[in-house]
Design brief:
By secondary structure, the protein is α/β, with parallel strands linked by helices. It contains 12 helices and 9 strands. A 5-stranded mixed beta sheet has the order 3-2-1-4-5, sandwiched between helices. A 4-stranded mixed beta sheet has the order 8-7-6-9, with helices on both faces. Strand 2 and strand 3 form a beta hairpin. The relative contact order is 0.16.
Length: about 325
């Protein structure tokens, strides 16, 4: 944080969006302007050993005039032990500052629909769907982690792309050879199979955080699909089918309320992927706010502000102008 940020004395609120690969802090002044933005690594306690240090490090940067904080943390509510540790880390850091703490996908759902009914499908490093009836009832689908879940996530797309690459390299797949050169180029690897094999193993052997690195490959797959690569398109179509299953399951769990669907997470910034889901689940609703906006909305209510529809629209413009719209 810049030194002048410590001098903020006017009333402000803050939100933290803690994901598997990155964690974002936004401080918002009472006049609707952004006081500060900070980002650090992932804070999912299931696979990030430094999650506590990163989270508390961000919380220590809050101005003393902070009136409330809204937090959405990956992994929250999924393990009683880890949930207690997350709560301890937050409460010890914030002291008497009021706060709300929930799962990051719950926060994203609130942001997307402004508290109204809907099902939010998130695909970032991991994947999950979260549905709300707008009256306090909610359900979740997925979010089981990379060992036996996270279908349709960036990690799974990246892993499937690597599997396809290795099958091409050793001759198990001769149909998708056209995928080899553009994908290797995107990864910075040689496209000659004899050179690519040791280079790929070298890449893998030097990974500091394999899950995040593999998830990052989904961006390359998306770009290739948008540019007409049929093999990449097939990888995204598989992910779309998996995510569509999440949405349908959530709707089945809440049959008494109509649930439009919306989206969050870096993977779903891909128009190709969203359109592939839409063919199975209908046209999505554009999110009113990015995920961090859900935390700011909750914090504003806790602070006694009046976050009406006009306030939400203004916040969306502000976050978008700051490059925080996704």
């Amino acid at each position: 944080m810049a030194p002048e940020s410590f001098a903020v004395t006017e009333p402000c609120i803050a939100a933290i969006d803690g994901g598997g690969s990155k964690t974002l802090l936004v401080v918002l002044n009472s006049d609707g302007t952004i006081a500060n933005v900070e980002q650090t690594g992932g804070t999912n306690p299931f696979d990030q050993p430094l999650w506590r240090e990163r989270l508390t490090g961000l919380l220590k940067l809050l101005p003393t005039s902070t009136q409330a904080v809204g937090l959405g943390l990956a992994g929250y509510g999924e393990s009683a032990t880890l949930c207690a540790r997350q709560e301890d880390a937050v409460s010890e850091s914030l002291g008497k500052i009021p706060y709300s703490l929930t799962n990051d996908v719950d926060m994203a759902c609130s942001a997307a629909f402004g508290g109204e009914p809907g099902v939010l499908v998130l695909s970032g490093t991991g994947s999950m769907a979260w549905a709300s009836d707008g009256r306090g009832q909610h359900c979740r689908v997925g979010g089981w982690g990379s060992l036996f879940g996270d279908e349709g996530s960036a990690y799974q797309i990246g892993r499937n792309a690597l599997t396809l690459l290795t099958h091409i390299l050793d001759g198990r797949n001769t149909r998708d050879f056209a995928f080899l050169e553009p994908f290797c180029m995107a990864m910075g690897l040689p496209s000659d199979p004899k050179l690519c094999t040791p280079a790929l193993l070298e890449w893998y052997g030097n990974l500091e955080h394999p899950r995040s690195a593999v998830a990052a490959l989904a961006r390359h797959v998306s770009t290739l699909a948008e540019n007409g690569c049929t093999s990449a398109a097939a990888l995204l179509s598989t992910a779309a089918t998996e995510l569509a299953v999440h949405i349908r399951a959530a709707r089945t769990k809440m049959p008494d309320v109509e649930l439009p669907w919306s989206y969050a997470g870096g993977t779903l910034q891909s128009p190709f992927l969203r359109n592939a889901i839409a063919t199975q689940c209908g046209t999505p609703v554009s999110p009113l706010l990015p995920p961090i906006g859900g935390g700011l909305l909750t914090a504003a209510r806790q602070a006694g502000w009046t976050p009406d529809a006009s306030w939400i629209t203004s916040l969306a413009r502000t976050l978008g102008a700051a490059g925080l719209g996704s």
